[in-house]
Design goal:
This protein has 144 residues and is mainly alpha-helical. The protein is 85% helix and 0% strand. The chain has helices at 2-44, 46-54, 59-95, 107-133, 138-143. It is elongated.
């Protein structure tokens, strides 16, 4: 009986593993892309961040500046997430046969679909924000 069950569910398990792998790859690409944009932004605005630090600005203020810009990017991406959730709600009827132990409209799953990419994006913004706080204030002053 176990062999029959394995044969019947092997294709579905392979498809689920493939979709999970592709989702993880997409999440990694999103994180690396946002990190790249934010790191480029920080490198281009080094002078703007170094001068206030030379004048006595707190590192928290600089970190808030970078995180604020990154958060605006994340909020813009929430519109895409909302569109994705609407499409996911429409497709749950088609994929209902692939779901085992999860209802098609599981609120925990939909919350995870929203929160995980948001946390990845915020983490990708936080790393360049930390690097921005480590800018030597004398570098932009010498440049000017």
């Amino acid at each position: 009986m176990g062999e029959i069950m394995d044969r019947e569910t092997s294709q579905t398990a392979t498809q689920a593993a493939l979709l999970s792998g592709l989702a993880a790859l997409a999440l990694t690409i999103v994180g690396v892309g946002i990190y790249g944009v934010m790191a480029y932004l920080v490198s281009q605005r080094t002078n703007e961040m170094g001068i206030p630090m030379a004048l006595g600005a707190d590192r928290r203020n600089i970190r808030s500046l970078v995180l604020g810009h990154g958060t605006r990017l994340v909020v813009a991406g929430v519109a895409g997430v909302a569109t994705g959730l609407v499409i996911a709600c429409m497709l749950t009827r088609l994929m209902g046969t692939l779901l085992f132990g999860v209802s098609p409209f599981d609120p925990l799953t939909f919350a995870g679909l929203t929160l995980v990419p948001t946390f990845v994006a915020l983490a990708a913004c936080y790393i360049p924000a930390l690097r921005a706080t480590r800018v030597d204030p004398m570098v932009p002053l010498r440049y000017e």
